[in-house]
Amino acid sequence: MIPRYSRPAMAALWSNQAKYRRWLEVELLACEAFARLGHVPPEAVEDLKARRPEYFDEDRINAIEAEVHHDVIAFTTWLGEVMGPNARWIHYGLTSYDVVDTALSLALREAVDMLLEGLDRLREVLAAAAREHRDTIMVGRTHGVHAEPISFGFKLALWYAEAGRNRERLVRARETISVGRLSGAVGTFATVDPRVEEYVCRALGLEPAGVSTQVLQRDRHAELMAALAILAGSLETMAVEIRHLQKTETREVEEPFRAGQKGSSAMPHKRNPVLCERISGLARVVRGNALAALENQPLWHERDISHSSVERIILPDTTILLDYMLHLMTVVLEGMHVYPQAMAANLERTGGLIYSQALMLALVDAGLSREEAYGIVQGLAMDAWEGRGRFPDLVMQDPRIRDKLTEEQIRECFDPARALRHMDHIYRRAGL
What we know:
By secondary structure, this protein is mainly α. The chain has two domains: 94-344, Fumarase C, Chain A, domain 2, CATH 1.20.200.10; 353-413, Orthogonal Bundle (Ribonucleotide Reductase Protein R1, domain 1), CATH 1.10.40.30. It has 18 helices and six strands. The protein has helices at residues 8-13, 16-36, 42-50, 58-68, 71-82, 96-132, 152-177, 194-204, 219-245, 274-295, 306-335, 340-347, 356-365, 370-385, 391-397, 399-402, 407-413, 423-430, and strands spanning 137-142, 145-151, 179-180, 207-208, 253-254, 337-338. The strands form three sheets. The chain has a two-stranded antiparallel ribbon. A hairpin with a 2-residue loop joins strand 1 and strand 2. Helix 9 packs parallel to helix 11. The chain starts with 7 loop residues before the first helix and ends with a helix.
C-alpha cells in the first residue's frame, strides 16, 4: 500500500480552536504588559489567566458575529461572557489587527517549521538515493534529445542541492514573517505604549515590527508565499522528470505501483504516474496562491480589508497542500522503481551519437581546427541519423579521422565512464 498522508497537525493549526487560542494568548500577554506599566490591576490579570477557557464555543461566537459582523468583536464579546468582570481589560488599548496579525505570524512560523521537517525528510531520501545511484549510468537529454551520458544519481544530486536552496529560502521567509505588532489603529502607538508591543513580542519569540500601520505590511507574507511557490515548483520539477522517464518508450524510472493498485478502468495494463501528476497539478494551485499574495501588497492608506478574505484561503490551503506534496514526493522517491537495464539500452539507442563531442575534441587535440573537426563529426553523425551506417563504424572507416587518431584513441571517445569521471567533485560540492 502507498503510505497515506496523515498529518493532522498542519490542518489543526488552522482550525478555529487553534486560532482562538493564539488570539487569547496575545490578549493575555498584552494585559500582563499593561499591568507591568500600571494600567491594569495585576490581580485582574491573574484572574483572567485562571479563567482562561480550554474550549471556545464556536457556535456562540458565530452567533455573535452574525449580529455584529466583526470576528474579533464576536470573540472578545464571548470572552466577556465567560471570563467575568475582569474581561473588561481584554483588548484594552488594542485594535483588532494588533491581535490578528501577531497571532497569524505565530501560525505561519509554526507552519513553516512543519514544512521544514517535511523538507528535511525529503532531503534525506534524496541523499540516500543519490548515493545509491551515483554510478547508475543513463543518457542525459537536452531539448528532449539524447545529449551525453550522466548517472541517475547525478540527477538526484541536482534535486538534493535544489532542495537545500529551498530550505534556505524557507528559513529566511520564516525570519521575515516572525514579526508582531501592537501599535494601535494606525500604527502610531496612540493608545498602546511601545513597551507593550516589545513585551508581547518578546514573550512570543517574535520581533516587533520596525514600522507598521494597522497591519503588518504584506510584502512579508508575499515573500513567504513566493518561497512556498518556488518549493512547489521544485517538487514539480522532480515529478515532471519522473513522468517523462516513466513513458513506455523510455521506462527508466517508475513511481511506486503497489499490489492491488489499478491504473485504468478500461485498460488493465496501465501503470500511470498519477502521484507525480497530482504533484504537478497542485503546484499550479500554489503558484496561483502566490500571485494572490502579491496582489495583497498594495492596501489603501493605513490599511483596508481586501487582503483578509484572500489570506483566509491561501495561507491555510498553501501550507496544507505543500505539507501533503512533500509527503507525496517522499513516498514516490522512497518507493520508485529504477531500471538500470533500460537506462543502459537507451544509452545505446543512438548508436554512439552521444559521444560526438568527445570525438570532436579529440580531433581538435590532434591538430584540427574546431570548425574542421565539427564539420567532419557532424557529417558522419547526420549519416548515422539517416540510417547510412552506425556512427562508430563510420568514424573508424573515415580516413580523415584515422589520419589523426589511433583505434585506441577513438575507442576511448566512446567510453561512457569518461563522462562520469568528475562525479566525486560534483557530489562533494552538493554536500553528498
